[in-house]
Design a protein that fits this description.
Elements: H1 7-19, E1 21-26, E2 32-41, E3 47-55, H2 56-83
Antiparallel strand pairs: 1-2, 2-3
Length: 87
């Protein structure tokens, strides 16, 4: 897994989590849906409401991927420290 693949995707997700408003919705079948909303300012200064909907599975997949990226990042740093004899 290349460490920097999909980095912009995670940066975008971070914006949703850090700057968005979250609502929880349940459909008629009892399935949970998480809806994130945030405003994005366009080049002309106009604010546009953006939405992102995710299921519990979507959020768990994202958490698992973030954990894999963090683990790979720590291993990379450990290897660099060992190779450069910085320990």
């Amino acid at each position: 897994m290349p460490l920097l693949d999909h980095l912009t995707t995670w940066s975008e997700r971070r914006h949703w989590l850090a700057h968005g408003f979250l609502t929880f919705i349940s459909d008629k079948k009892g399935n949970h849906l998480f809806e994130f909303r945030r405003y994005v300012q366009e080049d002309g200064g106009k604010l546009v409401l953006m939405t992102w909907q995710a299921t519990i599975d979507d959020l768990q997949d994202a958490a698992d991927a973030i954990n894999r990226y963090c683990t790979a990042f720590v291993k990379l740093h450990e290897r660099i420290y060992r190779e450069q004899k910085l320990e």
